[in-house]
Amino acid sequence: MSADEKFGRLAAELAGDGVVVKPVFGKQGLMHGGKSLGCRFGPGVALRLGAGTEEHTRALALDGAELFDPSGRHRPMKDWVVVPAAYATQWYDLALAARSRLG
């Protein structure tokens, strides 16, 4: 399954939780209540997990994960983590954690 298909599956699973697909940083994004919680990025997904949270720490520990730098100018966003497609089985739980932090 391609990364696009994995993202599509994630979006479909989150639809029941009030998450919609809309552009975020010029990419396919995940929004809840008008706030962004994630987006496709390269072969993975970037999720707004909140710096210092358990989920943020756990996501960053995954092989290949990194802070999200949408501009590519070495200015990563401290609250966002890019989770590689190899860990797509964890995307849903991490996305739920991101959604819960939106308030």
What is the number of helices?
3
Largest sheet: 6 strands, antiparallel
Q: What's the total count of β strands?
A: 6
Helix content: 25-40%
Could you characterize the architecture of this molecule?
It contains three helices and six strands, in the order H-E-E-E-E-H-E-E-H. It is globular and about 30 Å long. By secondary structure, the chain is an alpha+beta fold. It has helices at residues 3-15, 54-60, 88-100; strands at residues 20-24, 27-32, 35-41, 44-48, 66-68, 77-83.
Keywords:
single chain, 103 residues, six-stranded antiparallel beta sheet, 6 strands, 32% strand
Summarize this structure briefly.
This protein is an alpha+beta fold.
List the SSEs and their pairings.
Blueprint: H1 3-15, E1 20-24, E2 27-32, E3 35-41, E4 44-48, H2 54-60, E5 66-68, E6 77-83, H3 88-100
Antiparallel strand pairs: 1-2, 2-3, 3-4, 4-6, 5-6
